[in-house]
Each structure stands twice: as C-alpha cells, then as structure tokens.
Specification:
124 residues, mainly beta, 7-stranded antiparallel sheet, two-stranded antiparallel sheet, 10% helix, 44% strand, globular
Length: 124
Amino acid sequence: MENPICPVCSQPLLKDSITPNMYACIRRKIWTPELCIYLDIVDYSVLKDVNGGLISERYQVAPYDIFIFNNQTEIRQVMSPMKQKGAKIFKSEIILTIAAPLKIQAPTTKQKIIERIKMLVLFS
C-alpha cells in the first residue's frame, strides 16, 4: 500500500513502527504564541484498518487538536503545561464535540483549519 499524503503539509506520511496501520507526518516543535511555549506536533496522522478503511484521523494545528473517529469529531484546545517529571504533558480541554465527521478538504493550510475551528466554536 502506498503511503498517504498529508493534507496539511503535502508530504508523504511515514508508517509508524509500533502501530503498522498508522501513518503520520514527522514530529516537530512549533512555537505557540498563545501559550508562549514550543509544542511537539504532528500535522496529521491517520489510522487505517487492514483493508485500508479509515478508523481515525488527527490534525494538530497548535493550539488545537482535531480527532475524527467513530463518525464524530472532537476538538480540543491545549490550555497549559502540567508539572510532571520526565515527559512534557499538556492539559487540554474539549471545546467542541460534533456528532459527525468533520470534512477537511485537502490540500489545506493551518490557517484555514484554525479559521474553521473558530467558526464552529462561534456557531455552536
């Protein structure tokens, strides 16, 4: 099976070595001015079943995470870092749950995704 293309950065997604049906962009640090910190993000990741069908999708557009799974969409906003030894953990809140999968047209930009999230939150 050919690796899918990221709808955000248009780069080929890499196959995960632990979960064989998961594909994701390269993890990188991005400055988030709303929180005044760097976040480790992956623009897009997708989990497929053995037949190539979609199980879940995740878009990370700092400071938002969009999870699409089980025919619903959950939008989370990263609020603040939590104190914990070792790995950095960030507190996030679910700001919106939609009872349908959110359709994001590819290719897209981070700015378009953020604008769409703000519109959804405004009219919810």
